[in-house]
Design goal:
This protein has 2 domains: about 100 residues, no CATH class; about 70 residues, no CATH class. Strand 9 and strand 10 form a beta hairpin. By secondary structure, the protein is mostly beta strands. The protein contains no helices and 11 strands.
Length: about 200
């Protein structure tokens, strides 16, 4: 399996653009040039013993990245396995670009897409068949038994937009936009003025 790793298993590592280049770009694919890279790890100490540490910094400021990756680890320490007290620090920085994620949810099936490529498919009769709504979350914190250092806050995740479509063959009379409280929609608000 192909992989990208910086600062893994008791090491310190980094990737960054050379400042001599204008508008640099990085393109990450598997060995065949078209498939996904299996894993991209930045500060991954999941097999470290005792108190070993690792630090990874991938900074793509000033350029763009086109990466097709199946699994990404950023700052994963051995403490999550209960076998050690290792520390891992991972930092990933972009100043341009976006990630497109999609989901097709039909009765009994969910398919997740990243950058237009199917990455997860689950079929089960227990998948909801009732009307539902979006929940956008940015979770912070460690594993269930680990604390979270408030010095890492604030943490932001920016959503450019969210779009939903209803398949006509699955639509019902109750489909369409609705406020969560069941009351009338509020009047549109003017966009905030930027200084």
């Amino acid at each position: 399996m192909d992989g990208i790793g910086t600062g893994n298993q008791k090491n310190v590592g980094s990737i960054s653009f050379n400042s001599a280049f204008s508008n640099p770009s990085a393109y990450f694919r598997g060995k065949d040039g078209t498939s996904a890279v299996g894993t991209w790890s930045i500060g991954n100490g999941n097999t470290n013993e005792a108190t070993a540490t690792c630090t990874g910094v991938d900074d793509f400021t000033g350029g763009s990245v086109d990466a097709l990756v199946d699994t990404m680890y950023v700052g994963r320490a051995s403490a999550h396995t209960g076998t050690g007290l290792g520390m891992a620090t991972g930092t990933l920085t972009f100043d341009k670009g976006l990630v497109t994620v999609g989901m097709l949810w039909t009765p009994g099936q969910v398919i997740i897409y990243q950058q237009g490529r199917e990455v997860f498919h689950w079929e089960c009769q227990r998948i909801s068949r009732i009307p539902s709504y979006f929940i956008l979350q940015h979770l912070t914190g460690g594993w269930e038994t680990e604390g979270f250092d408030d010095d890492n806050l604030p943490a932001d995740m920016i959503f450019d937009y969210v779009r939903a479509w209803q398949r006509k063959d699955l639509a019902s009379a109750c489909d369409g936009p609705k406020p969560n409280d069941g009351g009338p929609l509020p009047p549109p608000q003017p966009a905030p003025k930027t200084p």
